[in-house]
Amino acid sequence: MNSYPIHIKPFGKSAVLVEWPFEIDPKILDDILTFKDYLKLKGYSGEEWEIVAAYNSLALINNKKEIKFEEISVRLRELYDQREEGVKKEPRHWRLPVCYDLEFGIDLEELSQQIGKTIEQIITLHTSVTYTVYGIGFLPGFLYLGGIPKDLETPRKASPRLHVRKGSVGLARKQTGIYPQDCPGGWNIIGNCPVPIFDAQKENPCFVRVGDTVSFYSITRAQFDLHTIQAEVGIDLLTKES
């Protein structure tokens, strides 16, 4: 098992943040998730503790009381050295449809000029790889997906839009992601996914978890309209592979 130099720091009065090297690396994420599940086995779970994993960090939040930082810092370092391999949940793989019609891919033409690729090449590149879910935020259900082809790496827009449509699929630097609801945003929008990523009415509002993998496949506008209707009436559009 790989080990990394971790840094533990206060994160408010009731939380601590454990940080790994600041890299987008699946091995680092795997170590974070292994440690997360090991902590749960050691009692950091239930109503008292909440653990949130992201690209290179793990936040431990106590929902009942303030914590003693020095005490928990020592304990976490002990547990990190003792962590066991193979306790974390196996990732699931999700195949999600995306319509790259220009009505949805509102930045496709500009992006095509910026990176010197045709729109068809951009779509082929975007659907050619498997992405890893490195984080979920800044909105509930917003997936931060790493593993984007280098040719698609592009900076965020200089001026964020005040309104980005729900389901919009965007690119920003080394990431791609899906907007789970209408909101402002500064990513380059290349398409739209008709599968609802977040539903507050469900017992499990977001079906994806950090560590899962995602791939995209292209659909036509007619297929998008059909999938949108199916989603509205509750038909499950998910394709999952273990």
UniProtKB/TrEMBL annotation:
Any one Gene Ontology molecular-function term assigned to this protein's record: ATP binding
- Which InterPro entries does the entry link to? CT_C_D, Cyclophilin-like_dom_sf, PxpB
Signal peptide range equals none
Domain Carboxyltransferase as annotated: residue spans: 6-208
Class in the EC hierarchy, top level: hydrolase
Q: Does the keyword Hydrolase apply?
A: yes
What SMART domains does its record include?
Answer: AHS1
The protein's Enzyme Commission number: 3.5.2.9
The identity of this protein, by name, is: 5-oxoprolinase subunit PxpB
Organism lineage: Bacteria, Pseudomonadati, Bacteroidota, Flavobacteriia, Flavobacteriales
Q: Point out the gene that encodes the protein.
A: pxpB
